[in-house]
């Protein structure tokens, strides 16, 4: 298979490209900077036509669209919130248009999405049929998914993996929490009752590959492990994984967190119990269905 990937330098993109190449597939990396190797093609997600040479995409079977400014790694100023939106929606629309005009067209577009779609759902369990929520991120994700419409209208199978918190020691939330946990100073965030829907990086990659292969799946598919946990349980599991005692009395209250980190703390305080209904029904075999197993594999470097 020949697969084009945007955002291929990121945490998920790097692991996905490695996984595809290891199995003999060809990867075409859509990059925003000057080209540095033969497998790269320039694109500009801000240009209406993505400023990409369609000839460079000739013969691709699929495209995985992962591009977007980080959601959890910067303070959410008004400018940065605008960046979170504008780094995803116009680029996805432009890319979908380019794919729709290719001849032949690729069979599949896997266009990243997130469980942010659901907003804050408290303790209620949600699957792919749940409506989108009322938070800023829910609005971004709604428009991000809708932006891929030109590809679907052209007959390309469009899948939206709604990823949960992807756990990797190399990036994302776990990467940021690990140094604190190793110091034995990991607090419970807010009330600790908020539900965190997570997925191991190997399963995130395995599930994206599953979605690439399964021509019968389209639309939203939750990429979360079947074992969402409360923040208190997550903190206890991470403390255990790094060999530190759990300190349930050590708390970072929500107002203090909002003051210190700003609105972007939503990743830690939003509650969403998201179930991978479609993935499970389709028979995806999770490698790490439980948090303890996922953390132990990640921290021991076994993947
Ligand atoms: N990690 C998670 O827990 C998680 C959960 C749910 C959804 N997702 C979504 O999945 C996608 C990939 O996640 P990730 O964790 O691999 O993210 P990441 O490590 O932050 O990588 C995202 C990539 O997007 C590109 N990018 C960065 N800023 C951009 C901008 N302003 N405009 C356009 N492209 C930009 C960069 O690639 P280039 O420099 O190569 O262009 C970057 O490497 C993201 O869209 C993310 O929102 C991630």
Q: Could you characterize what this model shows?
A:
The chain has 303 residues and is α/β, with parallel strands linked by helices. The chain has one domain: NAD(P)-binding Rossmann-like Domain (Rossmann fold). 37% of the residues lie in helices and 18% in strands. It is built from twelve helices and 16 strands. The strands form five sheets. Strands 1, 2, 3, 4, 5, 6, 8 and 13 form an eight-stranded parallel β-sheet that branches. It has a two-stranded parallel sheet with strand order 7-16. It has a two-stranded parallel ribbon with strand order 9-12. Strand 1, helix 1 (11-22) and strand 2 form a beta-alpha-beta unit. Helix 1 packs across helix 7 and helix 8 packs parallel to helix 12 (291-300). It is globular, with a radius of gyration of 19 Å. The relative contact order is 0.14.
């Amino acid at each position: 298979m020949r697969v084009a990937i945007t955002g291929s330098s990121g945490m998920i993109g790097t692991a996905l490209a490695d996984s595809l190449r290891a199995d003999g597939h060809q990867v075409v990396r859509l990059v925003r900077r000057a080209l540095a190797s033969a497998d790269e093609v320039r694109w500009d997600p801000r240009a209406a036509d993505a400023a990409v040479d369609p000839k460079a995409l000739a013969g691709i079977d699929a495209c995985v669209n992962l591009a977007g400014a980080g959601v959890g790694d910067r303070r959410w100023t008004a400018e940065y919130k605008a960046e979170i939106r504008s780094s995803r929606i116009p680029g996805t629309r432009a890319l979908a248009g380019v794919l729709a005009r290719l001849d032949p067209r690729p069979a599949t577009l896997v266009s990243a999405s997130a469980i942010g779609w659901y907003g804050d759902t408290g303790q209620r369990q949600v699957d792919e049929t749940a409506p989108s929520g009322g938070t800023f991120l829910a609005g971004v994700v709604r428009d991000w998914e809708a932006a891929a419409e030109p590809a679907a209208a052209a007959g390309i199978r469009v899948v939206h993996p709604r990823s949960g918190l992807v756990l990797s020691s190399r990036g994302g939330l776990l990467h940021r929490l690990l140094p604190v946990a190793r110091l034995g100073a990991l607090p419970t965030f807010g009330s600790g009752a908020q539900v965190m829907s997570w997925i191991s990086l190997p399963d995130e990659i395995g599930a994206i590959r599953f979605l690439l292969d399964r021509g019968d799946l389209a639309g939203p598919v939750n990429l979360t492990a079947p074992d969402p946990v409360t923040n208190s349980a997550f903190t206890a599991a991470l403390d255990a994984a790094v060999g530190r005692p759990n300190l349930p009395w050590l708390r970072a209250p929500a107002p203090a967190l909002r003051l210190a980190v700003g609105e972007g703390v939503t990743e830690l305080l939003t509650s969403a119990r998201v179930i991978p209904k479609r993935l499970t029904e389709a028979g995806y075999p999770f490698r790490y269905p439980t948090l303890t197993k996922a953390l132990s594999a990640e921290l021991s470097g076994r993947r």
